[in-house]
């Protein structure tokens, strides 16, 4: 796999994992503004000194490359992502998070038996 693809793939996998995890954390802090949408305001999430292992996973989507990653380790020293306007539906309720800042510091990622493929 090319170095550029590896550098792009690891943060994308981390971002997908964090968005799904942070949505659950953010949902617990919500205040209902109406019966259809619960507005959660701004969320600041920092994850540091952690190791994430993703194993025995298949990821498919349009435009994804076809590749297999086996026993690769990546370290992310420091990175910050910002998401504006995230909507999450959970158990029939819609939640709106206006602004999410995610900071990653000294995060290790291990990919073992991960297959990525184009869904088309």
TrEMBL record:
It comes from the Archaea. This is Uncharacterized protein. It comes from Haladaptatus paucihalophilus DX253.
């Amino acid at each position: 796999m090319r170095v550029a693809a590896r550098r792009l793939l690891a943060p994308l996998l981390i971002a997908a994992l964090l968005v799904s995890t942070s949505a659950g954390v953010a949902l617990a802090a919500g205040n209902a503004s109406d019966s259809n949408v619960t507005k959660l305001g701004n969320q600041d999430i920092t994850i540091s000194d952690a190791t994430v292992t993703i194993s025995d996973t298949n990821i498919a989507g349009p435009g994804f490359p076809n590749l297999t990653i086996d026993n690769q380790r990546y370290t992310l020293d420091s990175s910050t992502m910002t998401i504006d306007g995230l909507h999450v539906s959970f158990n029939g309720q819609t939640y709106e998070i206006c602004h999410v800042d995610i900071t990653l510091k000294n995060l290790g990622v291990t990919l073992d038996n991960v297959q990525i493929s184009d869904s088309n």
